[in-house]
Each structure stands twice: as structure tokens, then as C-alpha cells.
Amino acid sequence: MQYGRYEIIKELGKGGMGVVYQAHDPQIDRPVALKVLREDRVVSEDFVLRFFKEAKFIGRLSHPNIVTVYDVGRDHGTIYIAMEYLQGQPFNEVIRSGRLSIEKIINIALQVANALGYAHEKGIVHRDIKPSNIILTDEGNVKLTDFGIARAEDSNAAQQTQTGVILGTPFYMSPEQVMGKRIDGRSDLFSLGVILYELIVDSKPFEGDHFAAIFRAITDDIPVAPLKIDASIPQSISDLIMKALSKNPDERFQTGKEMGDALKTCLQVKESLLLPEKPISPQKKACGICFNYGSDCSSCSWRDNLFFWST
């Protein structure tokens, strides 16, 4: 099967808006990810025209943490977008594989914040920030996908967003999204805050047995601060997450750069906590991981990690 010149190889996944395939571009002889809009989403010619306009606009984005859009076209009564094919894992799969270190979590969030800041400056609001739309490549870099697709929905589809029909899981929506209000880049940063909370605490900040319960939690409930759940969580990252989850957009981080700068500060604080508090006497052996003494470090189970300190 083909869409335009692209030859379908296999299905990679499905979402509320469409199906993503691995495909081959014979013209350039390279693999691509082809997102094909579901036919029931092609609601009107006006929708199609605006979808094209948005897709072309997104295609002009150029950032190392945003997937590259190569082409957009129409075939088989629907629309397709050809994008960069990525080798890696969706972040929801990474989360299921086990808890990441705080440093790794902060580094990932920093890359996402930088990507969002860049896109917001270009006038694009993602509107669907969630783990499955973040790819962690085999090289350890973040790639944000599905940029701006929800932005192209018509007025009827915008109402559907409130019931989770289009965006799928509602857990990462901002209060203003849930209430159907006008949203801007600060909504994306709220969603990133939800992801951070989930990663740091190992549970979602807003939960419920059905959509209505989840939506009520998002609009009304104040989650427990991460530090109160786990005393080992640094105060700086706990405070950052709670600021990102503010109900009032004016009380959140206002830009991706502002949130990115705060994440960098959290990294610096975390690194400073790992440094020894005072010099160790000359020629005394210490573990290079946790700074305990001995021939082998029983505290952190590392071996051959000893070095000499000098004052």
C-alpha cells in the first residue's frame, strides 16, 4: 500500500487523530514515519485546508528536540504527514521499564522545556504533551512528536477534546483545557509538570475512575508536594513541579526558557549535594561513587572505584 510516493512497511501505532506507519521514501531512499489522518477526522474541506496550513507551518520548525516534518499530502481520501523516522522508545514505555534517576528525569524535562519554548516562540502550542508523544532516542536524546496537530481541529472537535475523544488520556490536560478555555504555551508547561510529578513520585497527580472524576481533580485538587511523599526528593525539584501545576496559568512558568532555567538550577543543586562536605585527609582511600572508605564499597556495591584525596 502507498500514500503518495511513500510505501508502507508496517504500522507503528494508533492515536486519536490517526495511524502512524513506518514507510519508505523511494525518491530519497530513506525511512520515514508516516502519520495518516483517520478518515472520520477529515470533517470538512475547511478542516483539510487548515490542517495543511498548520502542517506546513510545523514543517518550518527546526530544533534538535522536535521531530522533523518532511512532507504533507493527500491520498485515499485522507491526509498524510511524512516525518523523521526515529530509533528509540516512546517515553511511556521508558517509564514502565523502571524509575529513572532524578538527574536523568531533569535532563529529559529540560530538553522538552527547551523544545516547547522554541515552538511557543514560533506561535505553535502542542496541546497534547504526554509521555507517548515524547521519544527517547537510542542516543539518549529527546524528540517531541505530534507537534500542533490538535491545533488544527475545528470547533466541534474542540468540544470533543473535553471528553477525551481526540486527545485520548486526559491525565495530562491543563485546567483550562478541561474547561474548554483558550490555551497558550503555559498549558503545555502544565502538562510537562504532570509528567515530572509522575516520574519523580511514581504516581499521577490527578487520578479518578472516569473522565469526569479526573477532570474534577485537575480543576479542583491540589496534589501533595513530592517532598512530602518522599523526603529524599530535593526541595528545588518539588517546588518546581508544584509551580508548574498551578491552576492559574499566571502563577506557572511563563515560558519554556523560564522553566528550563529552573530545571538547570535543580541540576546544579542536585550536583552540589553529591559533593563531599569537607576535604578528606591525604592518602585516604574513598569510594568515587558515595565517598565511603574501604577496599571495596559495601554501601553502594561498586568495586574498583577507589581514588586518593589530597587536601
Set out the fold topology.
Layout: E1 2-3, E2 6-14, E3 18-25, E4 30-37, H1 45-58, E5 69-75, E6 78-84, E7 88-90, H2 91-96, H3 102-121, E8 134-137, E9 142-144, H4 155-161, H5 175-178, H6 185-201, H7 211-220, H8 226-229, H9 235-244, H10 256-273, E10 284-287, E11 306-309
Antiparallel strand pairs: 1-2, 2-3, 3-4, 4-6, 5-6, 7-8, 8-9, 10-11
Helix pairs in contact: 3-6, 3-10, 6-9, 9-10
Short synopsis of the structure:
This protein has 311 residues and is α+β, with helices and mostly antiparallel strands.
Largest sheet: 6 strands, antiparallel
**Percent range of helical residues:** 25-40%
CATH architecture of the largest domain: Orthogonal Bundle
Which regions are unreliable across 5 or more consecutive residues at pLDDT < 50? 152-168, 274-311
Instruction: Specify the overall morphology.
Output: globular
Number of domains: 3
Number of strands: 11
State the CATH class of the largest domain.
Answer: Mainly Alpha
Query: What is the N-to-C succession of helices and strands?
Result: EEEEHEEEHHEEHHHHHHHEE
Radius of gyration: 22 Å
| N/C terminus separation | 70 Å
Order of adjacent strands in the largest pleated sheet: 1-2-3-4-6-5
